[in-house]
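Appendix B. Extra example for self-study. Work through it before the problem class; the solution is given directly after the inputs so you can check yourself.
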Amino acid sequence: MKEYDVVVIGAGPAGYVCAIRCAQLGMKVACIDEWVNSKGKSTLGGTCLNVGCIPSKALLDSSHHVHFLHEQAKEHGIKIGNLEIDVPTMQKRKDKVVQVLTGGVASLLKKNKVDVHIGTASFSSHNVVSVKNNSMGTSEEIRGEHIVIASGSIPIDIPIANVDQKTILDSTGALSLQNAPKRLGIIGAGVIGLEMGSVWKRLGSEVIILEAIAEFLPIADSTITKEAKKILTKQGLDIRLSSLVKDVSVSNDKVLVKYESGGEEKSLEVDKLIVAVGRKANTTSLNLELVNVETDEKGYVKTDEHWQTSVKNIYAIGDVIGGPMLAHKGSEEGIAVAELLDGQHAVMNHDNVPWVIYTWPEIAWAGKTEQECKESNIKYKVGTFPYMALGRARAMGDTEGMFKIISDEANDQILGVHILGAIASELISEAVVALESELSSEDLARTIHAHPSLAEGLHEAALAVDERAIHI
Ligand code: FAD
Ligand code: AMP
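Solution. Structure tokens for the complete assembly:
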């Protein structure tokens, strides 16, 4: 039996990063993964690279170009005759992006001398894992002094809607459509629902999003979400809040969706339906019960603050332990666990994990929302600044959105930063550095920002905390 210092289960952003960091620190490492793509080929990178972050951003970028050509090009003096959209070519490009990046993960693991075992892992004992590969008809057992579970997450399915990836799709099916459905229904106005809705709306679908709860994006700051909802609605996304889907049926290639809204039973007929109601821990084949690794009531693997499970030598990281289900959160946990296993003091501040929703304008934030400050009885100050007042935003023709900085009334320490606007995904990193460094809004206000740049919006919002913004 092969023996390792560390066996990592899962080669998503949590698992492969953990494996590489362990190898960098001189440990003998194995990484097991079972992922098989639509062509039946094993690929690494997990959900994020295969059917998550990367393919969704590839399609969001392609469809954003379409949006630009339709809506903004004329203003820039660019005239286009007949604009033709070739979705299969767009999909091929997306597949190529995925192929290059998943291949990159394989090369990185190889370069770092991590042994990759392809197949499904399950515990045989607290330090032995069996790896079965049904397509190759192989089975082996490997031993790890430490085992790290990084098995990720899978879409939540609801019994009323049977995902067949033809008419009723989950996010994976939604990323593979070969043409824009005439009428597309989406259950769930969360991050994935909004991103998929944006892609297919820009490519020509009529998009209706049904969301059970009354509030739009309750995890984000309410000033930002109010504005975002207005803008997305103006773009043509029909977002119906307080609309609980009760029944879904398919006949003659159409989907009939029955939902309850305002005490009334309503129905909607669509050509395709995307179920985007969240994700859950992926632990089914791990045989956790055998080794007494505990899970919580929602099925997430329970860990302490050092990612140790109820079994001393077994750790868990990434989506499988819950919290923000984001790739960068899992990767940082992977690095922290590797360093802990090396005997280092490793900590991670979960309070400042940045969130991004890649609609256009993008929505990005880090730290506390204004609602959270109110709930915790924190006295705070707020500074806001609109994109409209930025020279660079005007030059780009992207003037929708705003910056918002919340700081502590007592000592001006920045508590939260919220951005709605063009490339907010990039701008939020400055905010994360500020939060991690416990900077005050005054520190940001006294930091020189290049002109003209969108980052000047953060500078101006910091000035606005003390009511001294210049350009408004
Ligand atoms: P995963 O990426 O799910 O990887 C787990 C791996 O473990 C998989 O490869 C799986 O095959 C393997 N595995 C599981 N069980 C076993 C087993 N028993 N044996 C062997 N192998 C096993 N996050 C962002 O930060 N930014 C985004 O823009 C973003 N966009 C997204 C868009 C979509 C459509 C989706 C679905 C998700 C998106 N996410 C995004 C979330 C992100 O993909 C996840 O947070 C991230 O992939 C979690 O990483 P992970 O390593 O914990 O798990
Ligand atoms: P997220 O967890 O961010 O992906 O968001 C999923 C969204 O789906 C949540 O906002 C849920 O309220 C919503 N949702 C879950 N079930 C239903 C349902 N049956 N009908 C409408 N919306 C739902």
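Self-check: Residues 256 and 269 are 5 Å apart (CA to CA). If your reasoning did not lead you there, revisit section 3.
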